[in-house]
Design brief:
single chain; 121 residues; Nucleotidyltransferase, domain 5; 5 strands
């Protein structure tokens, strides 16, 4: 299963989410679902609806359990993880998941997206 994990700022436009996804997904299979932190799910819903993809909202505990490649001090201070996008992608893809691409940042720096693959694919 190919999963796109997102981190983004409040008020992020759909175009920023799309841009981050396009950068992260470049050269990879299409994603099967989108994921983000529970308290951010409403902001990702427009992209999920536009792409007709399921959206998985993750608990704070799921985010802190994932081992990320990126080590953002700001992300760690706010969320207890080095990258919300990477943690979401890895947690949603399941045990044994691996990052296909670490977080990519939208050109306006409002959104990040990382792609993970679960062991079932």
């Amino acid at each position: 299963m190919i999963v796109a994990g997102f981190g983004f700022r409040k008020g992020t436009a759909l175009s920023s989410l799309r841009a981050a996804l396009a950068l992260a997904q470049e050269g990879h299979e299409p994603v099967r679902w989108l994921t983000t932190a529970q308290d951010k799910a409403e902001g990702l819903l427009p992209l999920a609806e536009a792409m007709s993809l399921p959206l998985v909202a993750l608990s704070p505990e799921a985010l802190t359990a994932a081992e990320t490649q990126t080590r953002s001090a700001a992300s760690f201070a706010a969320r207890g993880t080095g990258s919300v996008a990477e943690a979401c992608a890895l947690a949603a893809a399941g045990p044994g998941a691996r990052l296909l691409r670490p977080r990519q940042i939208s050109p306006d720096r409002m959104a990040t997206c990382a792609i993970a693959q679960g062991p079932s694919t």
